[in-house]
Write a structure and sequence with these properties.
Blueprint: H1 3-33, H2 38-44, H3 54-78, H4 87-109, H5 113-151
């Protein structure tokens, strides 16, 4: 195994592990609460979302985060970080982009601008991770195609 290949594997493993830990802890922690905490209700009380029942809103975010975390864990156990392609990880990363948009929307709506700025940074980092993983997958496919042509 070359140093470059080891760095590639560690990069893919680190990205997958980061999203697994982040979303499993965030999502399942919220699901264990089973209802919207007071800070959540108060944050949206004076916004258009304040007229909606807060517990289903809170639990839908928790469910989304939990599913993203579960997807990343499955990607880890499937060994996508070690393989040439990572379709589930790419799906998790794309879903994470939507989650950060939703979280950023809530932060902006409730005038929590520093939180909204953080979500923009999370979105940007996730987009970068998705681009890197997708590029890596495309290079692997291209390399396989070249090997096939050379073998014939």
């Amino acid at each position: 195994m070359t140093t470059c290949n080891l760095a590639r594997i560690l990069m893919r493993f680190s990205i997958t592990l980061l999203f697994a830990v982040t979303f499993v802890l965030a999502g399942f922690g919220k699901l264990l609460d089973a209802s919207a905490p007071d800070w959540f209700v108060q944050q949206f009380a004076e916004t258009p979302l304040g007229v909606l029942p807060q517990t289903p809103l809170f639990l839908s975010l928790a469910l989304g985060e939990s599913l993203l975390g579960l997807g990343a864990v499955i990607s880890l156990f499937r060994g996508e970080w070690f393989r040439q392609r990572a379709p589930l990880l790419k799906l998790v990363l794309a879903g994470s982009l939507l989650m950060f948009v939703a979280l950023g929307f809530g932060a902006r709506l409730s005038h929590k601008y520093e939180d909204a700025a953080s979500h923009v940074m999370y979105f940007t980092g996730t987009l970068l991770a998705l681009v890197v993983i997708d590029r890596d997958d495309r290079l692997a496919v291209s390399s396989e195609a070249k090997q096939t042509v050379l073998a014939e």
